[in-house]
Amino acid sequence: ADKLAAVYRRQQKSVGIIAVDPTSPFTGGALLGDRIRMQQHASDAGIYIRSMATRGFLGGLARATGDAALVLDAAGKEIILIETVGVGQDEVEIVKVADATVLVLVPGMGDEVQTFKAGIMEIADIFVINKVDRGGAEKLEQELKVLLGLSARADGWRPPIVKTVATEGTGVEELAEALGDYQRHLQTGDRKHAKRVQCWQQRLLELLRERAMVRLLSVGVGAD
Predict the structure, then answer these.
(1) What is the tens place of the pLDDT at every residue in 151-208?
(2) Contact 61, 92 (CB under 8 A)
């Protein structure tokens, strides 16, 4: 997210970054690993960085991540980047919050096998193969192309594959361009509005379930 944020800042766009970190076993707060990595932006008034601890909330996000994104949007941030804590195949909460979902894969880390599984692979709007300077990147790219050729999305979008070396900034401009292409795709046929309505419906149901659970737990269990 830090390299992508730098691209948007060069375009004079204000950026909000929500970095979801694991929970510290000592303080209960975020471990701040992502925020430490983004120290280059610390003095930039055009970037706001917020670390959030998962605190046991599943799905790769913290419970308040969606609310934080709304606050940043209301504060006028033109671009909001959300880094998940790292997810498995069925942890796809990010799709309920973000307009565009980027899935980052790394060659040689078992991702070659993961590409053929359902779940998180189906929600990606853009695939990124990072660290393409290491071996196995070509194999992973070919497997992704095979996977994408097996099915077509209902919205007509074909997720692109972007190759990057984030530490050097290689391919990050291309990733920003791919995100721009997807945003323009969402604008056609009012797809963006329909997607946001669907997300709000899902979040409303989750809020109702959470309120119901709180009320249930607040009711004492009487003894016979």
Answers:
(1) 788 888 999 999 999 889 899 999 999 999 999 998 887 787 888 887 778 778 877 8
(2) no
The sign of the CA dihedral 202, 123, 118, 170 is: negative
**b/e per residue, 75-114, with b = 16+ CB within 10 A?**
eebebbbbbbbebeeebbbbbbbbebbbbbbbbeeebbeb
Identify the helix (H) or strand (E) that includes residue 113.
helix 111-114
Which tokens belong to 169?
């900034």
Please choose, from the candidates 48, 59, 47, 54, the residue with its C-alpha nearest in 3D space to the C-alpha of residue 30: 54
Question: Tokens 């970054």 correspond to what residue?
Answer: 17
For the entire predicted model, the pTM comes to: 0.81
C-alpha 169: how far from chain center: 19
In sequence order, the β-bridge partners of residue 129 are 105, 163
